[in-house]
Amino acid sequence: MRIDIENNHSNMGIAHVGSTLIVDEVQLKSAPLHTGIDENIWVDNKVKVYPNPASNSINFEFHNAMLSNNITTLKVFNNLGEIVYLRDFAGDAVMINLVIAGYNKGIYHYSFTNAQNLIQGSFMKN
């Protein structure tokens, strides 16, 4: 088998099966990579989390259909899956302000659970 290799500048010669091929000037292109977390968005139309990302505190605002007079549990997890915050609260709460100033920078995951709902999402700590 014979492979002829040339570039724009000069003929590099003939390569044979088992020869080493050297490639120069490889260019890779990709579409823009979007990373991050959506800001100020209702999760499952029941919980709004803002600001996102946050530095000092983050707000969880509840749509009244979320709570419906049930005890609801908020759990916040780090990326290792460790619970860094756990709280039960009454169904009449409309907003929780969680102070995260002491948290390490990174992405955190949260879950709200009660008898009718399981809502999960993420936020970023700057």
Descriptive labels:
126 residues; mainly beta; elongated; four-stranded antiparallel beta sheet; 1 helix; Immunoglobulin-like
Description:
The chain has one helix spanning 64-67; strands at residues 2-6, 11-16, 41-43, 47-50, 57-62, 72-77, 83-89, 95-99, 106-113, 118-125. It is mostly beta strands and 126 residues long. It has a domain at 41-125: Immunoglobulin-like. The strands form 3 sheets. It has a 4-stranded antiparallel sheet. The protein has a 4-stranded antiparallel sheet with strand order 7-6-9-10, with no helix packed on it. A two-stranded antiparallel sheet has the order 1-2. A hairpin with a 5-residue loop joins strand 6 (72-77) and strand 7. The model is unreliable at 33-40 (pLDDT under 50).
In short:
The chain has 126 residues and is mainly β. The protein has one helix at residues 64-67, and strands spanning 2-6, 11-16, 41-43, 47-50, 57-62, 72-77, 83-89, 95-99, 106-113, 118-125. The strands form 3 sheets. It has a 4-stranded antiparallel β-sheet. The chain has a 4-stranded antiparallel β-sheet with strand order 7-6-9-10, with no helix packed on it.
